[in-house]
Amino acid sequence: MLRLERRPSPSKVWSYITPLVAVVATMIAGGLLFYVLGKNPIEAIRTIFWDPLFGEFASYSRPQLLVKAGPLILIATGLALGFKAGIWNIGAEGQYIVGAICGAAVALAFYPMEAWFIFPLMIICGALGGMAWAMIPAFLKVRFGTNEILVSLMLVYVAEQLLAAMSLGLLKNPEGFGFPGSRNLQHYPSAFNAEVFAGTGMHWGVVAALIAVIMAYIMLGRHVLGFQIRLTGEAPRAAGFAGVNTARLVMICLGLSGALAGLAGMFEVAGPAGQVSIDFNVGYGFTAIIVAFLGRLNPLGILLAGLLMALTYIGGELAQLTLGLPSAAIQVFQGMLLFFLLAVDMLTNFRIRFGKKEAV
Amino acid sequence: MKFTKLLTSAAVALGLAAPVMAADTKVGFVYVGPVGDGGWTYEHDQGRKAVVEAFGDKVETVYVENVPEGPDAERVMTQMALQGADLIFTTSFGYMDPTLNVAAKFPNVKFEHATGYKRSDNVSTYSARFYEGRAVQGTIAGHMTKSNIVGYIGSYPIPEVVRGINSAFIHAKKVNPDVEFKIIWAFTWFDPAKEADAAKTLIDQGADVILQHTDSTAPQAVAAEAGNVVTFGQASDMSEYAPFPRVSSIIDDWAPYYVARTQAVMDGTWTSMDTWDGIGPGMVGIGEISDAVPADVKAEAMALKDALADGSYHAFTGPVNKQDGSAWLAEGETADDGTLAGMSFYVEGIDGSIPQ
């Protein structure tokens, strides 16, 4: 007989090992899937996990990992703060969009003037835009007790409509022959979020993501706010007795995660994407939720999880390109990763016992 | 390295290595949707298959599907170019700037961008004159409607879509002066749920013919359920809904163009150019008009199709006024391509305004 026995306390060792177990299990199950699809499983796994890092054209794909992981890490770090406290911001995608619109609007307002202050101003407005969008569910929750999961999620769709309206109207490129989409900020030096070191993929958004990870790590470990966040998540009643102001915490957590999501949007629109367009958002805000949990809501874990997620995206494209794997198979593969992670998570809290339960 | 090269060339010379030789030409395709969408991307992939069929082992094709517009597209194109693609088709409007960026980095790779307007030495653009198909569709719609209300599901208010609405309206009005268009903007190219909602709303407003500029078959399903509503296939034939509600369709046929451009790369004759082909060269096809359409209407539609194909008739022929009543085309005047390419106004008789 196989049975589960709850551990007296979560196993430290297993909490570090489970992500690795999950990755290995995903490779095995994914390999089987690829085999059934008529592909060589070893080659497919190698293409996804090895080639982007060390393959023939890795000098191109390695920097791309940072470009893809940057916004994921930045958003997930912010989300993790709230998630730790049991405050569920599901609408980072909307905050990402509004941050991008605000950042780009600043740049387009000054176009074609060249000045040093434009980019910093875009950063500030991008963060404020994302924060303002997140403050809507925060305010409604604090004032009227609404559910922040629903409100923040619904506001994603509002933000998408706003994005479409901006691409078709206010921010539309006047030289775009009537097509939707703004001017390309890549061709506007004062607003362009260029690479800090050419050829590394390290744009200012990646720098901001690294700073956010370090700040969040310090805050959670050393700052009283971090203590309040952890306490509220683990023991809400105790937090009340310890004098934690829940309303204030809701505002701070949603505000911070909104600001970081807004920043991610702003850096993306000013750099890799270049322009506000109807299809600007590609789901970073939602994928970041997976990244946050994959990284166990720990900033350093999120850093690794973001890179891993980016690896599966880029490796997945390579597998489509070189092996002709359908994109749906890649998505299933990514889904497996999260599934196995959550499944083996059980080992952190439970022990597997063989044999009958002994009589006492 | 040199030694192996020598061996390889010796083997090739002896005809030993011939079966394992790689194809000479590699053609890449970047798709915005899944190849199984039954519409836009499906038809582009049919074009890719035609290339495979035409050239066999001499050409290798690769594709990546579901590629979001923006930096992801740029990365996919770069990977394709790095892996030795000679010709890359980027099949969505939003790939425009990424295509130009990548093309600048790989001057020896040829790029073909669908529906865009930016070109360079190694970037061509191509698009289809879908509005010619809309003229045929409008003619049938004008005859088929009994309530005189035609519903139209727009995707995005861009020139291509506005052009289609105008063309359909002009020709519906020509055969039925009482016809009225109701337009809903779905702000998506492919979203079955939203498209179904739009179709239901239009039917509630009295429409008994629905034209769509979105790619899913959801509006067809809604019309089939309603029972007395006529539809047309979009981008792909959607013949699974024939003979009713789908009475005809506009089909994008990219195959001849893709084969010709691949041939040009193989021959070394490829040059950057702008192609905008219609029914004549076969880039726009009219799907079979089903028997649900009366024979005389069918004959009229086919005659219009033939006139558009041989160039004896232009879908935008005056007199046509703009929505505000100001003159656009004088008697017998035809629209120039520049105006059509950037069309952002309705013609006279259409209610409502284009979202800004």
What are its keywords?
heterodimer, A: 360 residues, mainly alpha, ABC transporter involved in vitamin B12 uptake, BtuC, 2 domains, two-stranded antiparallel ribbon, 15 helices, 2 strands, B: 356 residues, alpha/beta, Rossmann fold, six-stranded parallel beta sheet, six-stranded mixed beta sheet, 14 strands, 19% strand, globular
Helix and strand topology:
The complex is a heterodimer of chains A (360) and B (356).
Chain A: E1 2-6, H1 12-36, H2 41-49, H3 51-54, H4 58-84, H5 92-110, H6 118-144, H7 148-168, H8 204-222, H9 224-234, H10 236-241, H11 246-270, H12 284-294, H13 299-323, H14 327-344, H15 346-349, E2 350-354
Antiparallel strand pairs in A: 1-2
Helix pairs in contact in A: 1-2, 1-14, 2-13, 4-8, 4-9, 4-11, 4-12, 4-13, 5-6, 5-7, 5-11, 5-12, 6-7, 6-11, 8-9, 8-11, 8-13, 12-13, 13-14
Chain B: H1 2-13, E1 25-30, H2 40-55, E2 59-64, H3 71-82, E3 87-90, H4 96-105, E4 110-114, E5 123-128, H5 130-144, E6 149-154, H6 159-175, E7 180-185, H7 192-204, E8 209-212, H8 218-226, E9 230-235, E10 246-252, H9 255-267, E11 274-277, E12 284-287, H10 295-309, E13 320-321, E14 327-329, H11 337-341
Helix pairs in contact in B: 2-9, 3-4, 5-6, 5-10, 7-8
